[in-house]
Design goal:
Blueprint: H1 3-11, H2 17-26, H3 28-42, H4 50-66, H5 70-90, H6 97-117, H7 124-133, H8 136-145, H9 153-168, H10 174-188, H11 192-196, H12 199-207, H13 214-222, E1 229-230, H14 231-238, E2 262-263, E3 269-273, E4 282-288, E5 294-301, H15 303-306, H16 312-320, E6 324-325, E7 330-331, H17 336-342, E8 349-360, E9 366-385, H18 386-395, H19 400-413, H20 427-449, E10 455-458, H21 463-472, H22 481-490, E11 493-496, H23 520-534, H24 540-576, E12 580-581
Parallel strand pairs: 1-12, 2-9, 3-9
Antiparallel strand pairs: 4-5, 5-8, 6-7, 8-9, 10-11
Length: 583
């Protein structure tokens, strides 16, 4: 039987499932051709023929599961793509919800075929990332680190497959948005020139789309060798902004009289940071007690004092989620007058802070049970660089600042490892240990008290996870360079409202609280600390409010940080080619 006879037999019900199965064995190509022709005819009335279509989809999926013949699988895939092309050209006027759902199912079948054939290709990792994982963050890292990955014939075919998928999708489909961003990243990467060498082939694919949508036109423009990326284009693609809206260019302030505030200006604190840094989040101070013990005070810039929660400015910081550091500029989460002035802990200025305080015994051991956090104002006596602090720590000078820094270094050296004897350590490590100290203690406190909080989770790649990666990407060992990159990017932190282990730091719970001027994750925790600890609220309304806020904010921040990473990657790639046009 030829394909036309098989199609008529299926439509009239003369060929049942069993007979069709026999035809797959005897007349494979005609049976597949006839089956897909039948599916296309039935799709003209998807509501009436829903059961029949789904039955044939199940038959195809079962057939794919049983097949190991790559040529047969590729033939099925070709006929499937033919149907999708015909749907795009002939059923465009009937682009109903039912048609869209059937197209999605056909693409799921294509993905099933790909998962069967991918094992026999040399680009298994790249194809899995692109078509199955759809992980733009990992792909952007690979595009940054590896040149010529689309240079060979197989890779060119891979880019052709990406474009083919893109033009077949509805403009508003989530997958279409994914492929648009993927193609934009590829055409901004070091692989651009090799793709432009085959520009005509790829432009033909884009021209197959009957309705020339804005995304298709935008991709067409990117094939122009003189194409220049505008900052506005990047803003739209990644839903971010280089500047602040006019409605947030105003400094807000709490009524500070309603919040109890300690005055620590008699005991100034110092900041230690990178050379030239003017966005200072943290400062430290050590106060001598008469009995030989000390009070360790770690001051963190107070965002809630300047920016009320849910204000326009707070919402803009939430939208950005983190300060983005680019090679030629910085995009902060707050305007300059807050990030580098009113909020920053600048030398010779009184600033409002959250003070994290500990009692330290005469042997320089921190008594962590003494931990408390208070609302305060303090004087910043010095802004030191790490280099300047190290000189003072190791100098032997007898002035009060040098002595305090040496004692602080001794205290930090005994943290984590319970050393019997204190020693001098690098100021960078000293600050790192103090930041970890307060993050750990406030996290433990919130977990113990059941206070809603934004925790930071980080899980290492263990042997079990490594085996899962090997299996997922169909490789035998982790010596492939791409897989090593994936392994590194799989070991990343994320935010969670559940108190979960941070394996890399070796802590049961951990949360960001030390960089509120640069990270909204720290800022939102400061708002929570103000409500539950500084103001002492404990009513059901406050608990419910923050649980609801975190339910939305935590996943958003995780996704926003991924977008920021993609934005930074593309920005740096196009900037290297002097292709960014300022507005």
């Amino acid at each position: 039987m030829d394909s036309k006879e098989i199609k008529m037999g299926l439509i009239k019900g003369k060929i049942d499932n069993k007979k069709l199965g026999n035809l797959f064995d005897s007349d494979f190509k005609d049976a597949i051709q006839g089956l897909f022709n039948t599916i296309f005819v039935l799709m003209r009335d998807p509501v009436k023929n829903d059961d029949k279509i789904n039955n044939y989809f199940d038959i195809i999926c079962n057939l794919i599961d049983k097949l190991d013949d790559k040529n047969k699988l590729n033939f099925i895939n070709k006929k499937l793509e033919d149907v999708l092309t015909r749907v795009d050209h002939h059923l465009v006027k009937k682009n109903t919800k039912e048609i869209k759902n059937l197209v999605i199912k056909l693409r799921e079948i294509a993905s099933l075929i790909r998962s069967k054939t991918i094992k026999s290709t040399t680009n298994v990792i790249l194809e899995t990332l692109i078509f199955e994982d759809r992980d733009l963050v990992k792909l952007s890292v690979i595009l940054d680190r590896q040149k010529d990955i689309f240079k060979s014939t197989s890779h060119k075919n891979l880019f052709r497959d990406i474009l083919t998928e893109f033009v077949s999708l509805d403009e508003n489909d989530e997958l279409s948005i994914y492929y648009f961003k993927l193609i934009s990243l590829i055409l901004s990467s070091n692989n651009r020139n090799h793709i432009l060498d085959n520009k005509d082939e790829y432009v033909k694919i884009l021209h197959k789309r009957r309705k020339f949508t804005k995304p298709i036109s935008a991709i067409m423009n990117k094939f122009d060798k003189n194409y220049i990326v505008s900052t506005k284009e990047l803003e739209l693609r990644y839903d971010m902004s280089f500047s602040f809206p006019k409605n947030v260019e105003k400094l807000y302030s709490y009524d500070r009289m309603k919040i109890k505030e300690h005055n620590f200006t008699r005991f100034p604190s110092v900041t230690i940071d990178e050379e030239g840094n003017t966005c200072n989040d943290d400062a430290i101070c050590l106060i001598d007690n008469h009995d030989g013990s000390y009070i360790l005070r770690i001051d963190i810039a107070s965002v809630p004092v300047l920016v009320p929660h849910m204000s326009y400015l707070d919402m803009e910081a939430y939208k950005r989620s983190e300060t983005i550091y680019l090679s030629d500029m910085t995009i902060p989460i707050y305007p300059d007058y807050i990030s580098y002035d009113q909020g920053s802990l600048l030398e010779n200025n009184v600033r409002h802070v959250l003070s994290y305080m500990f009692l330290v015994d005469s042997n320089f051991d921190v008594i962590e049970d003494s931990f408390k956090v208070v609302n305060a104002k303090t004087l910043i006596s010095n802004n030191l660089s790490f280099k300047q602090a190290n000189i003072l720590i190791n100098s032997g000078y007898k002035d009060s600042l040098s002595i305090m820094l040496r004692k602080l270094s001794y205290i930090a050296s005994k943290l984590d490892n319970n050393k019997v004897n204190a020693s001098l350590i690098d100021s960078n490590k000293m600050i790192e240990k103090f930041m970890k100290l307060i993050s750990k203690n406030i996290s433990n406190y919130c977990k113990k008290e059941g206070i809603p909080f934004n925790y930071r989770v980080h899980q290492k790649i263990n042997e079990e996870k490594r085996r899962e990666l090997i299996k997922h990407y169909h490789v035998n060992e982790l010596n492939n360079e791409l897989l090593k990159i994936i392994e590194q990017k799989s070991c990343v932190g994320f935010y969670s409202s559940e108190p979960t282990v941070h394996q890399s730091l070796g802590l049961d719970v951990y949360a960001k609280v030390t960089s509120p001027l640069r990270s909204y994750a720290s800022g939102i925790n400061e708002y929570i600390i103000y409500d539950f600890i500084i103001k002492g609220l404990s009513d059901n309304y406050t608990y419910d409010k923050w649980n609801k806020i975190l339910k939305d904010a935590v996943p958003y921040m995780n996704e926003r940080i991924k977008l920021n990473s993609l934005f930074s990657s593309e920005y740096e790639q196009v900037r290297k080619k002097n292709k960014i046009l300022r507005r």
